[in-house]
Amino acid sequence: MAASTRPKLLQGKRVCIFADYMFEDMELMYPKLRFEEEGATVDVVGGHPAGQKYSGKHGYPIASNRTVADCKSAEYDGLILPGGFAPDYMRRNQKMLEMVVECVDAGKPVASICHGPWMLCSARRANGDPIAKGIRATCFTAIKDDLINAGATFEDAAVVVDGPLGNIITSRTPNDLGDFCLAVIDRIVANGSQ
Questions:
Q1: Which of 34, 91, 108, 115 is catalytic?
Q2: Is 115 a catalytic residue?
Q3: pTM flag (> 0.85)
Q4: What are the percentages of helix, strand and coil residues in the chain, rounded to 5?
Q5: pLDDT tens for residues 100-153?
Q6: Which pairing describes strands 41-46 and 110-113: parallel, antiparallel, or unpaired?
Q7: Phi, psi (degrees; rounded to nearest 5) at 25
Q8: Orientation of helix 177-192 relative to helix 25-37, angle to 10°
Q9: pLDDT tens readout for residues 54-101
Q10: Kind of pairing, strands 168-171 and 159-162?
Q11: Rounded to an integer, what distance in angstroms lies between the CA atom of residue 121 and that of residue 97?
Q12: β-strands 78-81, 110-113: how paired?
């Protein structure tokens, strides 16, 4: 069987996916594979030294290939924040929070799903405002109040794309991964054509 001749939409692009313990397995692995399928280089980035093995909620393991301490937001065309319990660890890592702010402010897609929007609540601009302040967003219902308390307007939708530069992408659960990944791909492609 011949390889597909369909153009790869993310050829030459680089995507960062944050990881930590107890990530939602599908919310990390599905985007990773989907973006690689489109030709992107995908880095799994954790707060621990590169090579750290993280296990998902359902036991699926993945090793980071980079540590956030050695990453710069300028290296990436997009940032993915998976859910599960991992965002509760990730939001305690100052460098991860700084990368969220830098990517949002640079107009790069910052996409969070399920509990991932906790990062939008904890990542703050220099004036102290959370990234979530003033945006429309969605999330897993358990953190809806956190998102609202951080200043976001909650919408119960499969995917919400908003933010001052239209680059903040949020989704609710693994059931929304198809729409979530398409929204990220569309935004990365749009950024590349500007």
A1: 115
A2: yes
A3: yes
A4: 35, 20, 40
A5: 999 999 999 999 999 999 999 999 999 999 999 999 999 999 999 999 999 999
A6: unpaired
A7: -50, -55
A8: 40
A9: 999 999 999 999 999 999 999 999 999 999 999 999 999 999 999 999
A10: antiparallel
A11: 10
A12: parallel
